């Protein structure tokens, strides 16, 4: 991780110095363990703030929207797919970007780690290649990173960036034998009532803070439907039906666009498994249209394509 | 009444005996977090293992969504279009195990809800019906900075009773008449003697002395509003911010709300919901103009309100208790302690990795 951090700093310095980019977007080390902070670097002197480890689970593409300058940006597999999605949705131009690809071995699930130490306060985390060690008052424990990956990283099939100008280090091996949608299949087996109960339970702690929506690079509408007041589509209290309306509509807006980056799930202050809302849509996109979001700059997404030779009859 | 000593088990049993007199809230574990819930016969009380609840207990006095009025829109109804106050009860309740920082927060909110000119009827009545039984913090987290905000791990301000966790027992001290009344209803316990009281004092002094004094705040008081408002660091502070409601909704001292009308058929409710200065909608005018249209303006507002406007207006403390929730749970790690350092012209701690 230290070598990667050094490389990121060097590349950022070079890009800023030679004027390839105006700014560089990466992470700085967090003030609390397992929480790194996205940072905008404007000049080479600040590049030493940049930092990299397995606690960079936000999606940096989220910080591109609306920028008009030339941007260097760090991108893992899923982040690069979100950037591709941003480009084909005209939220940023490819020629504004210098994408520094970083092959990814997955991000640490901070909730699982806190659980593993019985919620004692962790004050420090260090990482080696395949393990990490957490320290707190009176304890120190070492874990295998593979056992504590974020849910999305466990089933990731695109650890290597799909689009980049420069790649840091060698590509990593993609995970083999992944069963990517077993969670979806389990829910599909439920009765309608059980599904309803499952999703109601899922969000019973939701406080409508919108961290999930705001962390997602897909949510860039100037005014979100939940914030609209003329007309008002959905109530703003924590009434369970209104909260469910927010969640279901948000998820459908992500259909065929979600890269399963896990940012929505990572940021929820109430620990809600947000990906459960988008996973089924991702699987449908894959099964019905052979589509995984963000893999191609040239192909249009299924939900904005019309083909006269479509094999589905209903559309003709 | 002098201090009393309860065994830990005896304390919980005594609390259960209050069922007819108070609605008692205690911390319980729910999944990965803690929350204040009603104490009933099979509640597993988490006094021993909890640091603090994820959501602050402010919602017990000030719910996230509250129906204030109801009305009919039915033209046939003689009361059509007349707002009627929703009937509420304000039965005595007690929050047992509240941390001193969260009790301090009620004193801060009181400045907003209970002023010489205006008294918010629902907040005030619920607050007055509430007895706050604090549990001193034997092991504050590294994110706690209550002492810098004028409080402390055993601070009494805003509490009616303070509990000291002495290992096997609690030493329980009434601080107000409300607290005396609460303890007067409790069965069991014995009077504390001098040794008990000295042990409690040693404990609280020891913990307090171990608190880091890392957050400089006095310089902010002496600076001009404009100088902080126009400072160059706000863009950087705001960069990562998602403008979500995490910091303000988890905060015990944030009090802002929004009023909404919701109509179902011919009936309507006027509801108030917590609002957040981080939301773009917060300051959106009817004309469409938004004086805080940019993210950095909203981020600046949160900190300026807590550490400058509030200070200049009330000249007594800050609109923050140092509970550390926003430090722990901001999803992008915007650390209020770092922002305070910037506002005080001190370099943030994380200059480089
Ligand atoms: S919906 Fe969640 S997992 Fe999907 S792209 Fe958005 S933040 Fe990532
Ligand atoms: S981040 Fe969590 S609590 Fe906030 S709106 Fe999303 S699901 Fe609800
Ligand atoms: S400071 Fe953090 S918690 Fe607060 S609005 Fe910004 S991202 Fe959300
Ligand atoms: S530390 Fe953060 S959450 Fe706690 S009172 Fe201060 S501003 Fe509010």
Rg over C-alpha atoms of chain A, rounded to the nearest angstrom = 20 Å
Bound molecules: iron/sulfur cluster
Strand order of the largest sheet of chain B: 3-2-6-7-8-9-1-10
The helix/strand class of chain A is: alpha/beta
Sheet having the most strands of chain A: 5 strands, mixed
Helix content class of chain B: 25-40%
> Count of helical segments of chain A?
10
List how many beta strands of chain A DSSP finds: 8
The largest sheet of chain B, given as strand count, sense and whether it forms a barrel, is:
8 strands, mixed
Rg over CA atoms of chain B: 22 Å
How far is the first residue's CA from the last residue's CA of chain B? Answer: 54 Å
Strand-residue proportion of chain B: 15-25%
Assembly state of the chains shown: heterodimer
Overall mean pLDDT of chain B stands at: 94
Number of domains of chain B: 2
Biggest sheet of chain A, strands in spatial order? Answer: 2-1-3-4-8
Instruction: Please report the total strand number of chain B as a whole number.
Output: 12
What features would you describe in this structure?
- The complex is a heterodimer of chains A (316) and B (353).
- Chain A is an alpha/beta fold and 316 residues long.
- Chain A has two domains: 263 residues, no CATH class; 29 residues, no CATH class.
- Chain A is 30% helix and 15% strand.
- Chain A is built from ten helices and eight strands.
- The mean pLDDT of chain A is 95.
- With 353 residues, chain B is of the alpha+beta class.
- Chain B folds into two domains: 194 residues, no CATH class; 126 residues, no CATH class.
- In chain B, strand 8 and strand 9 form a beta hairpin.
- Chain B is globular, with a radius of gyration of 22 Å.
- The termini of chain B are far apart.
- Classes of the chains: A alpha/beta (316), B alpha+beta (353).
- At the A-B interface, strand 1, strand 2, helix 3 and helix 7 of A face helix 10, strand 11 and helix 12 of B.
């Amino acid at each position: 991780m230290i070598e990667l951090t050094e490389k990121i700093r060097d590349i950022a310095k070079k890009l800023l110095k030679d004027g390839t980019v105006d700014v560089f977007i990466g992470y700085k080390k967090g003030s609390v363990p397992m929480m790194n902070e996205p940072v905008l670097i404007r000049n080479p002197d600040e590049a030493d703030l940049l930092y990299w480890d397995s606690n960079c689970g936000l999606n940096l593409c989220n910080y591109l929207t609306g920028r008009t300058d030339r941007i260097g940006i760090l991108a893992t597999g899923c982040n690069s797919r979100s950037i591709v999605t941003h480009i084909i949705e005209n939220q940023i131009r490819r020629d504004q970007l210098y994408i520094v690809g970083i092959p990814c071995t997955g991000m640490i699930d901070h909730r699982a780690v806190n659980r593993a130490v019985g919620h004692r306060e962790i004050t420090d985390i260090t990482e080696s290649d395949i393990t990490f060690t957490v320290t707190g008052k009176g304890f120190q424990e070492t874990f295998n990173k593979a056992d504590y990956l974020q849910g999305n990283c466990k089933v990731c099939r695109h650890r290597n960036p799909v689009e980049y100008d420069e790649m840091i280090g060698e590509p990593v091996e993609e995970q083999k034998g992944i069963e990517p949608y077993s969670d979806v299949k389990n829910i599909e087996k439920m009765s309608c009532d059980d599904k309803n109960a499952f999703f109601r339970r899922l969000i019973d702690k939701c406080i409508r803070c919108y961290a999930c929506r705001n962390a997602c690079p897909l949510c860039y509408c100037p005014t979100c439907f939940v914030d609209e007041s003329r007309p008002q589509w959905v109530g703003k209290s924590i009434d369970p039906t209104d909260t469910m309306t927010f969640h279901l509509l948000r998820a459908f807006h992500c259909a065929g666009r979600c890269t399963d980056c896990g940012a929505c799930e990572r940021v929820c202050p109430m620990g809600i498994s947000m990906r459960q809302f988008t996973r089924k849509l991702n699987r449908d996109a894959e099964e019905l249209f052979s589509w995984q979001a963000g893999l191609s700059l040239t192909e249009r997404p299924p939900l904005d394509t019309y083909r006269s030779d479509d094999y589905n009859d209903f559309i003709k | 009444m002098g201090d009393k000593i309860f065994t830990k088990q005896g304390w919980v049993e005594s609390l259960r005996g209050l069922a007819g007199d108070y609605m008692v809230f205690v911390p319980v574990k729910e999944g990965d977090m803690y929350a204040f819930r009603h104490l009933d016969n099979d509640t597993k009380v988490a006094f021993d293992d909890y640091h603090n609840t994820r959501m602050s207990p402010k919602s017990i006095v000030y719910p996230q969504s509250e129906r204030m009025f109801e009305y009919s829109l039915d033209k046939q109804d003689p009361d059509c279009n007349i707002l009627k106050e929703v009937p509420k009860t304000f039965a005595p309740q007690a929050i047992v195990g509240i941390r001193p920082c969260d009790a301090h927060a009620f004193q801060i909110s009181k400045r907003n809800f209970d002023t010489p000119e205006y008294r918010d009827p629902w907040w005030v009545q619920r607050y007055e019906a509430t007895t706050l039984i604090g549990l001193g913090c034997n092991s504050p987290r590294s994110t706690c900075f209550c002492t810098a905000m004028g409080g402390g791990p055993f601070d009494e301000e805003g509490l009616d009773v303070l509990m000291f966790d002495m290992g096997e027992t609690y030493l329980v001290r009434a601080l107000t008449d409300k607290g005396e009344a609460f303890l007067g209803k409790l069965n069991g316990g014995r009077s504390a003697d001098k040794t008990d009281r000295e042990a409690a004092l040693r404990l609280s002094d020891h913990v307090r002395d171990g608190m880091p004094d890392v957050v400089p705040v006095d310089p902010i008081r002496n600076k001009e509003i404009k100088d902080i408002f126009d400072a160059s660091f706000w863009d950087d502070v705001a960069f990562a911010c998602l403008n979500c409601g995490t910091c303000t909704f988890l905060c015990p001292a944030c009090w802002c709300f929004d009023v909404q009308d919701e109509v179902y058929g011919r009936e309507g409710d006027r509801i108030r919901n917590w609002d957040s200065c981080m939301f773009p909608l917060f300051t959106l005018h009817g004309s469409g103009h938004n004086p805080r249209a940019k993210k950095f303006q909203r981020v600046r507002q949160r900190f300026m309100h807590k550490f400058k406007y509030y200070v200049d207006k009330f000249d007594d403390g800050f609109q923050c208790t140092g509970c550390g929730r926003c430090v722990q749970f901001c999803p992008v790690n915007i650390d209020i302690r770092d922002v305070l350092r910037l506002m005080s012209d001190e370099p943030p701690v994380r200059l480089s990795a």
